[in-house]
């Protein structure tokens, strides 16, 4: 079967209607049972029935991890977001500390991701996520079980032990961080094994750490491991996952994702970069609009895998690292993408102001004045960063130094 379930192929209109229903239900139930939500709604003079569309959610504040920690400190253990009468299966702890009364084991957490990666019955999966305190180990374990895989709960045991498990148990799939898989592969080499020839690991699903394209290429070409990225946050569970097309991450059916301007909490148009804000439909913990602090954008175009959900275009960085130009974020990771297209031309962005307008200047190193280069640079930049360059200043090679800031923000706001 291509999809985990038929929800993944819902027409977009039907998905949106269902999203609104679920959000309304959550607001309604939360208002009746959660002290925090009731207070929040009352202070804002909103009634649950005022939430009629996804846009209406914008009336509620975005809650960052820092804010959540603060709220839980003043109102332990769950900040008043919980239904105190609801039975809780398990409680996870993440740094802060943040306490999470968690969804039950029967939830589909991460199962969509593993299914999309082709993991299922017949696979023996090594789960190298931490199993104690945090949600990771057990929830990834649950997802693997849900798709029918046999799980080896190796957690964060040492690399030598992991190599032994992979060998003895004929492990076919790995889940954990990319850097840990690479450390295991290296250890296998030191132990005299040829990872590709001697072992059966052919799939890997990563989370909790960015997968660098160069590392991905090594896994896939050198070790013949098909790699997939998964994205989530401990407060809200799984959020998005890669399908076999590997062109963006499909948003899970159990969450609502908004891409917002962190300054205003309002949504930005599809395709624009903004903060990833997640609401998980949850009947016991009413955390509406959790701000992840991660930057991404929505890809609306249909995916050739047939899933109809919107996709996230990877994670472009953290909100604090990006600079806003004419209301649009430019993140260092986007600049690295531009740099990959122009390997011989170092560049630097200068953001200034003329009157009430932002002015974006690019200092571009080039040997000769090549109008073609300038044009293609402008086009690529616009395509990747969505922002238009106002002025290109061509400078001689060697003008920009290794340690120069990629973005100089010269605006003053006084
Ligand atoms: Zn797809």
Report on this model:
This protein has 414 residues and is α/β, with parallel strands linked by helices. It is built from eleven helices and 22 strands. It has helices at 12-33, 35-43, 65-74, 111-116, 136-146, 159-168, 178-190, 195-198, 213-222, 332-341, 371-385; strands at residues 63-64, 90-94, 98-102, 124-127, 150-152, 173-176, 203-206, 226-233, 237-242, 249-251, 255-260, 274-280, 290-296, 298-299, 311-312, 317-318, 323-325, 328-330, 347-354, 357-365, 391-395, 407-409. The strands form five sheets. It has a nine-stranded mixed β-sheet with strand order 5-4-6-7-8-9-10-15-14, with helices on both faces. Helix 6 packs across helix 7. The protein is globular. The N and C termini lie far apart (59 Å). The protein binds zinc ion. Zinc ion binds at residues 243, 245, 250, 303, 305, 307. Residues 243, 245, 250, 303, 305, 307 line the site of zinc ion.
Distance between the termini: 59 Å
Tell me, rounded to a whole number, the average pLDDT. 93
Low-confidence stretches: none
Instruction: Supply the number of helical segments.
Output: 11
Outline, from the CA principal axes? globular
Write the layout of secondary structure elements.
Elements (H helix, E strand, L loop, with lengths): L11 H22 L1 H9 L19 E2 H10 L15 E5 L3 E5 L8 H6 L7 E4 L8 H11 L3 E3 L6 H10 L4 E4 L1 H13 L4 H4 L4 E4 L6 H10 L3 E8 L3 E6 L6 E3 L3 E6 L13 E7 L9 E7 L1 E2 L11 E2 L4 E2 L4 E3 L2 E3 L1 H10 L5 E8 L2 E9 L5 H15 L5 E5 L11 E3 L5
Parallel strand pairs: 1-13, 4-5, 4-6, 6-7, 7-8, 19-22, 20-21
Antiparallel strand pairs: 2-3, 8-9, 9-10, 10-15, 11-12, 12-13, 13-16, 14-15, 17-18, 19-20
Helix pairs in contact: 1-2, 6-7, 10-11
Bound molecules: zinc ion.
């Amino acid at each position: 079967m291509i999809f985990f379930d038929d929800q993944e192929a819902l027409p977009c209109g039907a998905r949106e209607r269902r999203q609104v229903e679920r959000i309304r239900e959550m607001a309604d139930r939360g208002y009746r049972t959660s002290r925090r939500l009731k207070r929040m709604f009352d202070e804002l003079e909103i009634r649950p029935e005022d939430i009629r569309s996804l846009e209406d959610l914008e009336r509620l504040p975005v809650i960052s991890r820092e804010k959540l920690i603060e709220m839980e400190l003043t109102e332990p253990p769950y900040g008043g977001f919980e239904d105190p009468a609801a039975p809780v299966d398990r409680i996870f702890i993440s740094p802060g500390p943040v306490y999470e009364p968690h969804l039950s084991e029967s939830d589909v957490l991460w199962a969509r991701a593993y299914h999309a990666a082709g993991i299922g019955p017949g696979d023996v999966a090594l789960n190298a996520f931490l199993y104690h305190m945090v949600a990771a180990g057990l929830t990834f374990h649950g997802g693997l079980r849900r798709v029918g895989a046999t799980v080896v709960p190796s957690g964060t045991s040492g690399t030598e032990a992991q190599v032994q498990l992979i060998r003895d148990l004929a492990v076919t799939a790995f889940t954990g961080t990319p850097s840990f898989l690479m450390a295991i592969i290296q250890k296998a080499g030191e132990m005299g094994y040829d990872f590709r020839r001697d072992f059966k690991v052919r799939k890997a699903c990563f989370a909790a750490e960015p997968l660098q394209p160069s590392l991905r290429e090594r896994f896939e070409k050198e070790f013949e491991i098909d790699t997939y990225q998964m994205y989530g946050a401990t407060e809200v569970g799984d959020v998005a996952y890669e399908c076999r097309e590997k062109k963006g991450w499909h948003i899970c059916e159990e969450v609502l994702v908004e891409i917002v301007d962190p300054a205003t909490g309002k949504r930005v148009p599809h395709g624009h970069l903004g903060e990833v804000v997640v609401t998980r439909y949850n009947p016991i913990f009413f955390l509406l609009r959790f701000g992840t602090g991660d930057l991404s954008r929505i890809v609306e175009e249909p995916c050739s895998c047939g899933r109809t959900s919107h996709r996230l275009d990877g994670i472009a960085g953290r909100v604090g690292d990006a600079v806003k130009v004419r209301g649009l974020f430019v993140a260092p990771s986007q600049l690295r993408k531009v740099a990959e297209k122009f390997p011989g031309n170092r560049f630097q962005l200068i953001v200034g102001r003329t009157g009430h307008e932002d002015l974006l200047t690019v200092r571009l190193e080039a040997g000769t004045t090549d109008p073609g280069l300038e044009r293609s640079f402008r086009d690529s930049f616009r395509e990747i960063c969505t922002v238009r360059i106002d002025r290109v200043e061509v400078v001689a090679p060697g003008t920009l130094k290794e340690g120069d800031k990629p973005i100089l923000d010269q605006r003053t706001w006084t």
